[in-house]
Amino acid sequence: MPATALNSSRSLHRPELLAPAGDRMCVTAAVENGADAVYFGLDSGFNARARATNLHLDALPELMAYLRERGVRGYVTLNTLIFPEELAAIERTVEKLAADGVNAVLVQDLGLVQRIREICPTLPIHASTQMTLTSAECIREAEQLGVSRVVLARELAIDEIRTIHSQTGVELETFVHGALCVAYSGQCLTSESLGGRSANRGQCAQACRLPYDLICDGSDVDLGDVKYLLSPQDLAAYHLLPDLIDAGVCCFKIEGRLKTPEYVANITCHYRRAIDDALANRPLSFTDDDVTEMELSFSRGFSPGWLGGCDHKMLVPGQSSAKRGVLLGHVVRVRGARVAIAALQSVAPGDGIVFEGNREAGEEQGGRVYEAVPRGDIVELAFGHHDIDVERLQPGQAIWKTDDPKLTSRLRKSFSGNKPHRRVALDVEVTAAAGAPLRIIARADNGASCTIESDERLAEATKHPLTHEVLSKQLGRLGDTVYELRNATAQITGEPMVPLSVLGKLRHELIAQLRESLKLPLPPREGLGEGSRRSQNTPHNSAASNKLTSSELTSHASPSPRLRALCRSLNQLETVLDCKVDGVLVDFADIREYRQATQLAKDRSIDIFLATPRIQKPDEFGIFHALAKHGADGFLVRNLAGAAFCAEREIPFVCDFSLNAANPWTVEYLRSLGARRVTASYDLNREQLIELVEAGSPSGLEIVIHQHMPMFHMEHCVFCAVLSPGTNKHNCGRPCDFHAVKLRDRVGMEHTLHADVGCRNTLFNAVPQSAAEAVPMLLSKGVRDFRVEFLSDGGDSLRATMNLYHNLLAGRVTGKHVWQELNASNRVGVTRGTLEERRNPLAIL
Length: 845
Known about the structure:
The protein has 26 helices and 37 strands. It is α/β, with parallel strands linked by helices and 845 residues long. It folds into four domains: 16-180 and 232-306, Alpha-Beta Barrel (TIM Barrel), CATH 3.20.20.70; 324-413, Thrombin, subunit H, CATH 2.40.10; 426-517, no CATH class; 542-553 and 563-831, TIM Barrel. Strands 1-2-3-4-5-6-7-11 form an eight-stranded parallel beta barrel, surrounded by five helices. It has an eight-stranded parallel beta barrel with strand order 25-26-27-28-29-30-31-37, surrounded by five helices. The longest helix is centred in the first third of the chain and has 19 residues, at 261-279.
């Protein structure tokens, strides 16, 4: 998508440049290179980059003072799910953040948002991209909670962002640079499923960066060197900033809390220039060298991501998943220990390089250049002794430049040293008259201001009266402070005399008073103001929450547990309806089949709920209307827009796992919207699930006790990328309708890939998981609603599974018996999954 000039008919707003800070040095690098704000996590947890150094809570007062003095805002990431045992700790953390004057907190957990509004009503809340907000309808629900800014999902195109901006009043923030996750943030359960390391808890193991084999209709597909089927290129949207400003984006976010300070400095300074160019309505002033510099800091290849729409082949070329920097050239010949290359970039001794090779097989070679000798269009390279086995190199082999020490040194200088590189403009007004104190009024661009006076009245000059030039020179001697004198105006009456020592003393007092003026008062702890949020006890529509289906009316008179089954095909549904089941849910790729499914269930007098898609984009609200036409008993809702749709129309609904209810606050909030039941988060282990049950009403929970974990949920379509000549759902020919696809991982597990009604892909874990052994404990705690979910099961296998769980809930068999029977009948075995008491990461991670 080409960049366009800013639309002069729209009111021009100055977007914020938001830089990442994994540690204190990164904060400095961001500030000194032009960031308007920084975001960082705490080493006490609750942030989605657990592997970053992060900052200590006790360091916040000094850090926030540093930022305020430089006119930079500081946002703290509390963007993970909160577990039941952490409720008191997160409350203390929030109160400390508010007291220390952080400018906002980034939050994923819906229940935490509501709780922050109650305990710290003046603390601004930004909805993290982990909240998976993809439409105006979803965002309105977050806005009702008190969210003032939304970090949009990275899968939105600019036109979709423009539509959202026209329909909402909250600020919109979007990522413009850095690593892209192939899965929707907040909807990736891969690390959790495979190794108990939750991305929703900041512990992503990056399984998307691993190689996978493609299996189509039972046969391996030879894709050549395309192995990294789920590893997207990095986002680089510097050329799209004018379009994003015009679309209404108020904040441009750089990804990278795991990156170095040099990376932060590099990317921040380049995007500072790009924003300034866009605001001045001038062409982007970047050169090819500028782009090369950014690539050298970190790059898996640059792309516009989804901002220009879906191009699955461009987004995931599939040939690499690691940082490679920039293409330096290709091998021409090997002569002795020297390698001659046709160079496309400059190369110098000390530069880091890597020769293209199969990294997984250990065939990739790299090191530092020892000598670089130009010979016409060719450059001869020499390396350290034994660093490179030149006999393994071949003419035509690509060579990549991965590091440039000179660039690194220059970047480090931009934020090191005792004197600040970035200054804050200061204006002073001076009033001086003989017989009166000298008076100075100062105002700075960071919001600091003060008024000071000399202790004594000024005497009449006998030799050197005060002049404007003397004032400007003396007050401008701001040394190592962050301030820089911009304007000094003076009203001098008569010929007063001011000793230089007095001006020096006043200058020091001036700086101290400016710093003092930036200190923030403690936020009040009063109740919420009217209209700031919907009451936590008031659902959208009380009638919706009171309208029960027939089986539920019966079940309220009986303590018997209820078993429901989710089916993904009509054949599965027909088999399940022949079993003992208290209700069914259907999740089909073709929603036209929902009418037949509904009729099948009605004929058996069994309640049926239709599953909504997990994602709803601006042009997809009509899917809810289409579902409502089929006359089902309710919806299995997977996003906030679906919940609002049902509540407004008095359609019974159950909230699914994708709404990430991991604590009683979130369960209570979703129930307040009108949800009949809330599916517990898959991030909870057995102990945490029991704590959730004990902390709230077990009658409001539904527990999934058998399933294939939905690992990746992606806008990216693997079917289109590798089985179609097309680039998106409009020209792909829909291979997903005709082919069954699996992805084989490094340990040989074959994971099933499904496409949904929106052409989004879900990769399901090959190994089913069962919580059978946890069921007796859950029953003893009062849980009565359980669910089993089927993927490709059918026939006798499906019937056997249903009978096992029915007998388990009836007390006729033990959880251990169910576990053993399932393992005996399943080709790849069955795991205990997230409800295992001890989690052991698997080899794939």
